[in-house]
Design brief:
Shape: globular
Structural class: alpha/beta
Order of helices and strands: HEHEHHHEEHHEHEHEHEEHEHEHEHHH
Helix content: 40-55%
Distance between the termini: 26 Å
């Protein structure tokens, strides 16, 4: 009880710091463009305290940055990014410098610095799950490895999951590593009149709709979805947000409002990933009232707890069994998911980030 009161008082104190002109300012460094997850992460950080947290978008301000933001593979890119950061930060007043991704080369500064690491660095650098084996990607990995080695000595490190936190410790990070789960957007919520939504989106009303939301990188393991669709009866159809899988009904570049409708229109969310740093679509599925069949991997167990039908991502029969179980246990799965959603609210994220900034400063 006393600790809860103390935490409340401390949070109000930190909020007062942010509200008072110039008492605590955070500069957030972003290198990716909308709608990438890291871009959205930088915006969530900026929203927690309005004007006292500002975002420096490197991809918008570095000459020739179109190539940088798409490939990030050449060593001299890192050199010019470092020069750019030094130049910008000289004139910008801030108390905390927050790097949102290890792709950004850290620069020496007398201010407090923190980095957010989103993925397991061992798998990121030493497998082909994130990068295919091309000359360009080998250079990218070399560049990223050098950055990560510099971040290993950072005193302040954030992650999005306890799974990644453990991976960073095993990799050799020596700083104070803290986990703060990403929040889901408030756009994701349950809607009524599924039949009407399906009609609006041009989706068949007579079929059981399976949903896949992801990029097509190897770690997403999309091949198994294609195999399952070939074995499932004709009354099943696949709805895909991203690149097509077989004869999927495909949506691309959708707004958050439309994505929320797509979730609500479908019957089961499929997440057969081999590797994830977090996996927010699982929580988005909970928020929109759609049962989830997802891989039995550590990070999904962390965030999904008992609200997911877990499957072996390498076994198509296991995936089909997970789909069947999700449909049969729909109400129970939705009930369990509802209990998890509050942990991923923006308010919880805001409170934890304010406390964190106050602690490291």
């Amino acid at each position: 009880m006393h600790r809860r009161v103390a935490n409340s008082k401390f949070l109000k104190y930190i909020e007062h710091f942010f509200a008072s002109a110039g008492l605590m300012k955070v500069k957030v460094i972003n290198i990716w463009e909308n709608p990438t997850a890291i871009y959205l992460y930088s915006r969530k950080l900026a929203f927690i305290a309005n004007k006292n947290i500002s975002v420096l978008d490197m991809y918008q301000q570095i000459p020739g940055s179109n190539r940088i933001k798409r490939e990030m593979q050449m060593g001299f890119d890192s050199y010019f990014q470092g020069l750019f950061l030094r130049y910008k930060l000289k004139s910008d007043g801030y108390d905390i410098l927050h790097y949102t991704d290890p792709m950004i080369p850290p620069v020496k500064t007398h201010k407090t610095s923190v980095v957010t690491v989103h993925d397991n660095p061992t798998i990121l650098l030493h497998s082909d799950l994130y990068f295919s084996d091309t000359f360009s990607n080998r250079l990218t990995k070399k560049f990223l490895k050098r950055n990560i080695e510099r971040y290993m000595d950072f005193k302040n490190v954030l992650t999005n999951s306890n799974y990644v936190r453990k991976a960073l410790l095993e990799y050799g990070f020596t700083g104070d590593i803290e986990t703060i789960h990403l929040p889901i957007d408030p756009y994701f919520k349950k809607l009524q009149e599924r039949k009407k939504i399906r009609s609006e989106l041009g989706l068949p009303d007579s079929k059981t709709l399976l949903l896949s939301v992801s990029t097509n990188v190897k770690r997403k393991n999309l091949n198994i979805i294609g195999k399952a669709m070939k074995l499932l009866p004709d009354n099943f159809a696949l709805v895909r947000v991203g690149e097509s899988i077989g004869e999927s009904i495909t949506f691309q570049n959708v707004s958050k409002e439309k994505l929320n409708k797509i979730y609500n229109a479908c019957d089961v969310l499929l997440m057969p990933s081999i590797e994830e740093g977090l996996g927010l679509p699982v929580i988005e599925g909970f928020a929109t009232g759609i049962p989830v069949a997802a891989s039995n991997i550590e990070v999904f167990r962390e965030i999904g707890k008992d609200a997911v039908e877990y499957i072996d991502p390498m076994d198509v029969q296991s995936l089909m069994g997970g789909i069947k179980a999700a449909l049969e246990n729909r109400d129970e799965m939705i009930y369990r998911g509802n209990k998890i959603i509050p942990e991923f609210s923006f308010q919880v994220f805001r409170e934890k980030m304010l406390r964190y900034y106050g602690k490291i400063l």
